[in-house]
Amino acid sequence: MSVVDMDLVCGIIREATESEILPRFKNLSAAQIHEKKPNQLVTEADIEAEKVLARRLCEVMPGSVVGEEGVEADPALMTALERPGVVWVIDPVDGTANFAHNNPRFAVVVALVIDGVTQAGWIHDPVPNRTITAHRGQGAWRADTRLRVSAEVPLAQMAGSVKKRGRVAEHVLHVARRGSAAHDYLDLVTGKLHFAHFKKLMPWDHAAGVLIHAEAGGYGAMMDGSAYTPVLHADGQLLLAPGQASWWDLAPLID
């Protein structure tokens, strides 16, 4: 039995996308785009969508909110993930640089964390209007279609997403990174990618995706072999693969 109405949350995400994000896509003025840190953009869409999502999601299940833009304003909000209780983790626009440059590879990401464990995740891809969801123990889904990661194959047949090509590029078919962790997760569970490696582990980028990947049959772990948890990992690195054997084949090649 689900701890939350998955379809209700899907509807909230889509409504916020249609009211706050899509009307601004390809319509942003310079005044609606800011650099909050060097090479890190935020737009009016990020800020307004997070406000709507935070309010609506807490109406569904009261709790704390850890959102990318809220934490930027008040880093202490991140500590909610270290305490018992309900936490909604929100990335209102994953792939903001893509969004700001009129590239449709962006997404809305929501995770529901209860007592430190991710119970449900949603990744909404606005332009094609597709949503992928997972509830712990109930699989990963797109509408009525259950999703599975790609089968394990030899390294030479693998495609992946890494920030630095390094040695792994010498052993696999293809590696790239295109500016949206959410789309990497979408590609992992729809057969376009076999693996992905991440160093920047903000919970709004990964809490939902790690659960979705696992529920689709994938294997993911920190590079030291420990399990991923939805907290801030200051120095950790995460590797996701189709299975444990593939993970061990890939891990020694990751720089």
UniProtKB/TrEMBL annotation:
Cofactor(s) needed by this chain: Mg(2+)
Keyword Magnesium among record annotations: yes
Gene Ontology biological process: inositol metabolic process; signal transduction
Chain residues that bind Mg(2+): 68, 91, 94, 205
Statement: the UniProt record of this protein carries the keyword Cell inner membrane: no
MF terms in GO: inositol monophosphate 1-phosphatase activity; metal ion binding
InterPro entries noted in UniProt: Inositol_monoP_metal-BS, Inositol_monophosphatase-like
Name of this protein: Inositol monophosphatase
Family, per entry: Belongs to the inositol monophosphatase superfamily.
